[in-house]
Amino acid sequence: MKIDVDTSLCLLHGQCVIAAPTIFSFDDQGQLHWIVAADESLRADAEAAADACPEQAITIGA
Amino acid sequence: MGPRVTIIGASLAGLRSAEAVLAALPQARITLIGAEPHLPYNRPPLSKDGLSALVAAGGDPTDMKAVFCGLTLRHRLPEGAVDWRLGLRATAVDAARQHVLLSDGTTLGHDWLIAATGLRPRRLPFEGADDRRHVLRSFDDATRLAAALRPGVKLAIIGAGLIGCEMAGTTAALGCKVTLIEPQCQPMLAVLGPRVAAAMAQLHRARGVDLRCGLSVAGLLPDGLRLSDDSRVEADVILESAGSLPNVDWLSGTGIDLSDGILCDNTLSAIGNDRILAVGDVARFPNPLFGGSPRRVEHWGMAGLTARRAAETIAAREAGRAPGTTFAPLPGFWSDQHGLRLQGFGIPTIADETRLIEGDLAMPGTTPCIVEYRRDGRAVAVLGIAAPPAAMAAHRARLERALSETVPA
């Protein structure tokens, strides 16, 4: 499963970090990091993160 | 054949409910009724950059359409999986026969009914001046308002809640002359508490907003407003942002308590009729994180969380099971004003004490501020003003742990 974050839309609300901490995290500088090629077992978490993003910046591919 | 699920309201909560029901019950036959002609779209930007984009579009149909496309909510509903009926309202429910009467005169039967009808703006109790008066809830409201805004326009905003304050920031940046009128002694007092509200008042004034607190509108004048102290405010455009009301009249006569939204139990089933569930802004439900008093939560994030919970409840009941573990969602909200991000978790409203954890509230915007809200000595909310997102995520986790300790097992 491919996870994409459109960083031009992302406003660092951090909702994805809350919804799916196994996939999304902030580093000490406040930059967002995420697993780009995540295991299929994390799909529900990834979808919850995409739903929680107020800017709709997260897309989940096959 | 799967159960018939009718969802009234095709905005964020209704859309997420359709997705969640279909994920839990792939055979469900879902009908989604929406009062607006538009596909579901994201409302928060309408008081922020979405409004600025509509003003910049200047009425150009192609540009306006592009703005709407940017707001349209993405979804995971397969083509044909849901019967969309847009431009229709529910007008009444026959609870005994399990059907809904729609505004086109037809009826629609259901096994489960999800109420996702959201809020409407509360209007000022005055007649007239309709061409100058605006509200901001829908895309069409925003389009009409944007057409009236340009640099130099005198805008009076009635009500300094989150939307009024966001609009003060957005329109001041557009060059409007903004007067923000609030009956309480500070802006956003109910949401932020007195200390933080006072800091935000200072910020709005520093950014050129004429903030007038402790005053209400006493009447409309040909060129503006008369306030409760008999002072006058010139206004070419009036925005009424003095709170909102739940859209629940269509459920009258069902025996459900509609005194403040739809009174539900923790499964989001309406008390008195468990075939009817409520999600989003209209759902008034007990949250064990905060002592179990039923409350409505008007935050964006609650739409998705309540939608999942309602779908779980329906799926469990269809399978003859009791719905799963307790629903204890931690509310979260954000607001963007004058380029500053406010981000909060928990319920600041119920606090009896605020404690500054970081920063200096005398100068909001110059340093990051983090405030903890307490009730009876325990944390009930945390709020950041221009605070680093990683710090806020950590504070949120800490708050959730602390609140969870109070939940009976």
Name its key features.
heterodimer, A: 62 residues, alpha+beta, two-stranded antiparallel ribbon, 24% helix, B: 409 residues, alpha/beta, six-stranded mixed beta sheet, five-stranded parallel beta sheet, 8 helices
Please describe what this structure looks like.
The complex is a heterodimer of chains A (62) and B (409). Chain A has 2 helices and 4 strands; from the N terminus they run E-H-E-E-H-E. Chain A has helices spanning 15-19, 43-52, and strands spanning 3-5, 24-26, 32-34, 58-60. The longest helix of chain A is centred in the C-terminal third of the chain and has 10 residues, at 43-52. Chain B has 409 residues and is α/β, with parallel strands linked by helices. Chain B has 8 helices and 27 strands. Chain B has helices at residues 12-24, 49-57, 61-71, 139-148, 162-173, 189-206, 300-318, 389-404, and strands spanning 4-8, 29-34, 82-86, 90-94, 99-102, 107-109, 112-115, 119-121, 133-134, 154-158, 177-182, 210-213, 217-221, 224-227, 232-234, 237-240, 244-246, 262-263, 269-270, 273-278, 283-286, 294-296, 332-337, 340-346, 353-358, 369-375, 378-385. In chain B, strands 3-2-1-7-20-19 form a 6-stranded mixed β-sheet, with helices on one face. A 5-stranded parallel β-sheet of chain B has the order 9-16-10-11-12, with helices on one face. In chain B, strand 1 (4-8), helix 1 and strand 2 (29-34) form a beta-alpha-beta unit. In chain B, helix 1 (12-24) runs parallel beside helix 7 (300-318) and helix 2 runs antiparallel to helix 3. Chain A binds chain B through residues 11-15, 17-18, 26-28, 30, 47-48, 50-52, 54, 56, 59, and chain B through 16, 42, 44, 73-74, 76, 300-301, 304, 332, 334, 341, 343, 388-390, 392-393, 396.
